[in-house]
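Narrative summary of target 7.
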Amino acid sequence: MSTTVNASIDVDVPVRVAYDQWTQFESFPEFLGGVDSVTQLDDTMTHWVVSIGGVRREFDAEIGDQVPDDHVAWRSIGEVTHRGRVEFTPRGGDSTRVDLEIEWEPEGFVESAGAALQLDDLQVRSDLKRFKEFVERRGAPTGAWRGEVHGGDARPTPTPGTAGSAGTIGTDPDLSR
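Modeled conformation, tokenized:
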């Protein structure tokens, strides 16, 4: 039986800053509890190492859908069942609403008990608060990737002034994914 958690938070940064920071998956351990590391394998694949409730897991996740300043959706590949979606909504001025939905399949007694006691909900809300603190404290993202992903296929966003061409992976050469 899968568990789904939904949480939201308003962050006091423009939508572009919030979205760009979220696309820096390798920085997740700085604000996501239980995430030991995330390695960006390519534009759509990541490798995760997590430790939650004394249980360590490794899995790969594929970004299936991603639109700059709007949303990122992912799903795990292989034995571990994990999927999620984060949406970014401008709230006027320099504020952004971040809505996160995560679904996974608890395994074993510890994870099932945590889900039953809604400890997962508390963890996700705490993680969003740490994301808020992280991105607001910095004021600027640690990097950016402005391409789109649809059906697991990455489509780089053209650089301004290159209409009709494939463009480059990022629109800012100083920022990397």
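Residues 109-119, 160-177 have pLDDT under 50 and may be disordered.
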